[in-house]
């Protein structure tokens, strides 16, 4: 696995808020204030899954897709509670969309981020 998060230019735009970046199942998670905001993925296997993944809530994926050119809705759920939006790195407006996304994150857009469910304790 790569040691440094991909698309690291976004961290320049996220400077106004405190973020935590950690490895996450072959990707990197970006969290702030306990919320999972983004996943960053750039791997050679399944390149169609590479890019900036955005954790959305409610109807956030639908409205954000209109705001972020080149983004794709992934993993739609009937409950609409845990959809993911993806900005692929080969999207025509990738960098512009990523910068706009960071601006929304910094301004605490309520459509972005979710508090993960706590893990159940491991049984011995």
User: What is the multimeric organization of the chains shown?
Assistant: single chain
The number of helical elements comes to 3
Overall body shape: globular
- Main beta-sheet strand count, sense and barrel state: 6 strands, antiparallel
Number of strand elements: 6
Our estimate of the beta-strand percent is 15-25%
Please indicate the count of domains: 1
Q: What is the straight-line distance between the termini?
A: 29 Å
Q: Name the strands of the widest sheet in spatial order.
A: 1-2-3-4-6-5
What average pLDDT do the residues reach?
89
Helix content: 10-25%
Structural class: alpha+beta
**CA-based gyration radius:** 14 Å
Flag low-confidence runs.
Answer: none
Output the helix-strand order. HEEEEHEEH
Commentary on this structure:
- The protein is α+β, with helices and mostly antiparallel strands and 124 residues long.
- It has one domain (10-106).
- It is 20% helix and 24% strand.
- It contains three helices and six strands, in the order αββββαββα.
- Strands 1-2-3-4-6-5 form a six-stranded antiparallel β-sheet, with helices on one face.
- β1 (20-24) and β2 form a beta hairpin.
